[in-house]
Amino acid sequence: MSALEIIINLLSWFFIVSGSVFVVIGAVGTIRFPDFWSRLHAASITDSAGMILLVIGMCLQAGPTLVTVKLLIIGVFLFITGPTSTHAVANAALVTGLRPPEGEGLSGAEPEPLKLEGEGDA
Predict the structure, then answer these.
(1) Number of domains in the chain
(2) pLDDT tens-digit profile of 76-91?
(3) Among 10, 23, 57, 89, who pairs with 16 as Cys (CB 3.0-4.6 Å)?
(4) pTM of the complete model
């Protein structure tokens, strides 16, 4: 094995292990966090980060082949659909009436619309 192969091997395993750690942390966060919104945030962020790192590591392991191209296509697909599905789930929860918990000092009132210059002066 040449020095370049060893470096690529070490980098690929670093990315694979890092991605796996992100996915496991997301799974633990999904179980441990108290409410729906925290769980959704933990799952979506760590899923995206873990997926990116895993795909990078697998691409380094595959080398410059057709497998790498396929992995990149899968990665782009997951990179687009993951946040989109998370947004759809969050929007559905919000529409059905599940509101995020209010922090201390927040009133929960809807913001007033902006007034343009000249409106309401008369």
Answers:
(1) 1
(2) 998 899 889 988 988 8
(3) 57
(4) 0.72
SS3 annotation, 68-94: HHHHHHHHHHHHHHHHHHHHHHHHHHH
Residue 106 lies in a domain: no
Residue 44's domain comprises 3-95
Q: Which ranges of the chain would DSSP assign to H, the alpha helix?
A: 3-32, 36-62, 66-95
Q: How far apart are CA 100 and CA 122, in angstroms?
A: 39
Asked, for residue 109, whether it belongs to a domain, the answer is: no
Phi, psi torsion values for 30, nearest 5 degrees: -65, -35
Query: Structure tokens of 112?
Result: 């007033």
